[in-house]
Q: What sequence folds into this?
């Protein structure tokens, strides 16, 4: 079986401009994620970042990507609408999987696919988070324990302005008093989308092996299948031999 | 109880340029719909059309509209992005209801709220349609029979590229061999959206009393409630008295 | 408009055998709930309890009930299967609403309607609960704040073994580290069902005005509509004039 | 990778008592299904029938079954409640997949898992059926065309009294004027359930290669994963170090 081609997209600004963050992710968040993905047998992961030409998402890259991961935060507005449109089409028409991470909730592509503002509450004091599994039969929960505990994370709190997920896999508990729908599955056209909450830039969350397992599971879940070839628009000839409509006076 | 303020928006082009269509809807599709709505006790319906200034959707009109109906077909691209943005915000942030009719599936506002292409199959031979109720307990099905029969309609067929509806109320059968998810409920932010398939411009569908009943039911279902006031963004102070996070090394 | 007929069913054992609980609910949990319901203009509430003949749910009572509330805990097994069957039929076939409260999650009727074990975690130390609204556009959330805070409640924790709710309205946060899907909407046949978590017998939860508001909203949401009259079983005559099947060799 | 263990359960009465049906399925419907399943690389299929001891579903058989297929029709009431309970527990607690075929909609196990009557309309004139795919990104639709056409089938029509499916994969069109939700996915506890409509005993439906492909896809989809080990009931020690609840007066 050929490997799943994964592209890890990262804004890659925090790591450049902030030394304390660079210390945690010396090769960027994308580098850290691609590293553990490339240790998986069935996955071959590359990276792309905002400041590369076409944000690293050339047609060649996009068209050979099975699943795209997206981490962005302070520069969502710098992502070109053209690239967003291309990613959208790859997901909805071709069935490329998309995994949106943490502050990617405010990315253009996620907002465009959700049809909502994707707003939420946040607080950055590094409090404890627990991601409880509320859909244990879901493939994204495979091999995990009942909950994942992160000793320190940024808090995201409800109301999270997203459409009700098709499957809700994780609900987070935060020490400070909030909850959050942290693992949310969607289908848009031929493509599958997973939003996964954790992953603040100032914390070593992507080194947590449970978090890594979730991302690997989500990639397998979101990987494109050989979907039925859909035809749209005009169907000139009735598929059935029908006489009913002939009696009408409107044709 | 004060009346629900409904605005019926119509592209209003077919009726002007095509005499055979004008004969069916002499006051426009919007006129025909507003007429039967204004016979309802709890509803006060106005209209708005594409060629009015701001497409008839001034801030005053939009801000006083509880539920907006949308019929468009050949001029979707002429609807200004500014107005689309305003309608979007009224739905998602303020909770205005939105009912998208027939060829409105390809309108900018519906595509923006769905996050998909909203493509479908179609055939225009005036064949028989039957809208079967698959959610009889839903308020939009109140007072109907098991199915609604339309002797002649344009066919819309699957695959209809929409997110799976939160509630699927109607599934259409067409004489020519297709099916279609014809009554689809969504929530986006504070707003409720109902897509309702029938209503081809060349057919007297909006005079059918069952179709009228569905639209009235949908308006009542989509009408805004006094929703909780949501706060977003920074929550500086932890809501709980927590000590856990203090042991961390990231603050 | 005639009033909604509500019947509040309670096991009514704790209040009899335990003085500390009787002090909180001197007229039983059912009495406390019926009291605030009867202050609502559109509601007329009666009560029924386990130890009455037929558990107080005679055919007369059931057939005139629009919405049934159910509180049970230590005597679920004493509820007769016949009554459970009658309640089931009233919900699924006739469309009576059903609101299942707190420890009612383990009642025979809830298990039968869910098709799962309805198991969960619990801890009884009176910790703080916060019910966050995750579906602010839902009618059950009308008029509330962003969350409801209960200073002391029994904890219920995930995984809660229920089918994924059709609408998830509340997610609870507990001080001790758990979350719970606390407000869950379902449709079964013609009937609507709402599970609402709070309401431990040793705590004055049903005197909380937000909790009361949720229950009133839920009653209005679950109240039966005039649903389409459904026919089942044999449809001898094809509804269409079809010739296709005649060519077959299997008739 | 070890093979998926599939057990095909069949009532196996029509084939014995009716020669015309025996001609179509000389080894029983279960035999025909097991035959094509055993040609798949990753599947090992056995059979079980009503009149075997314990209906062929001994503990040994059940405990080693990954996915159970269920075909029944005229003898649902002869299936012992004990066996139904065992199958239920295998699905909900252990995560065994269950695929319910055609007239199995009225089986005890399906009704128990759905929590509804599972009633529907039917007509037996061998009319044409078309199963349209309405969820092309779903793994059960992999490798199919836009629709499956069966020249002759029994008609099943809406309203089908089931909970709204978590994923609706197929909607059937029937020549006689009805539609039906023909491919419905559910999760109950750790287990996945797929209802698939076609397969009348008097027609050679299970020899259709598209129908076979759907069943194979559904088996792969429903196969148990290594789900998180869930703990229920009493959690005596608070998971967090909390002080909040101590101030309460109810402990």
A:
């Amino acid at each position: 079986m050929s490997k799943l081609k994964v592209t890890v997209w990262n804004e890659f600004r925090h790591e450049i401009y902030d030394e304390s963050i660079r210390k945690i992710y010396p090769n960027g968040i994308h580098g850290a994620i691609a590293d553990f993905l490339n240790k998986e047998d069935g996955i071959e992961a590359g990276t792309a970042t905002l400041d590369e030409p076409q944000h690293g998402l050339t047609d060649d890259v996009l068209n050979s990507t099975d699943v795209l991961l997206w981490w962005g935060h302070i520069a969502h507005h710098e992502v070109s609408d053209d690239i967003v449109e291309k990613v959208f089409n790859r997901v909805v028409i071709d069935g490329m999987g998309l995994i949106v991470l943490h502050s990617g909730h405010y990315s253009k592509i996620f907002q465009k696919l959700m049809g909502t503002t994707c707003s939420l509450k946040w607080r950055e004091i590094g409090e404890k988070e627990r991601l409880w599994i509320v859909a244990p039969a879901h493939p994204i929960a495979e091999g995990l324990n009942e909950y994942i505990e992160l000793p320190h994370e940024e808090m995201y709190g409800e109301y999270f302005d997203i459409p009700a997920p098709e499957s809700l896999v994780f609900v987070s508990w935060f020490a400070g008093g909030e909850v959050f729908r942290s693992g949310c599955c969607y289908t848009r056209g031929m493509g599958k989308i997973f939003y996964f909450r954790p992953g603040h830039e100032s914390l070593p969350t992507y080194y947590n092996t449970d978090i890594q397992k979730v991302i690997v599971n989500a990639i397998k879940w979101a990987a494109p299948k050989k979907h039925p070839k859909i035809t749209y628009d005009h169907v000139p000839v009735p598929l059935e031999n029908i006489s009913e409509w002939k009696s009408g006076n409107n044709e």
In short: Residues 244-251 of chain B have pLDDT under 50 and may be disordered. The radius of gyration of chain B is 20 Å.
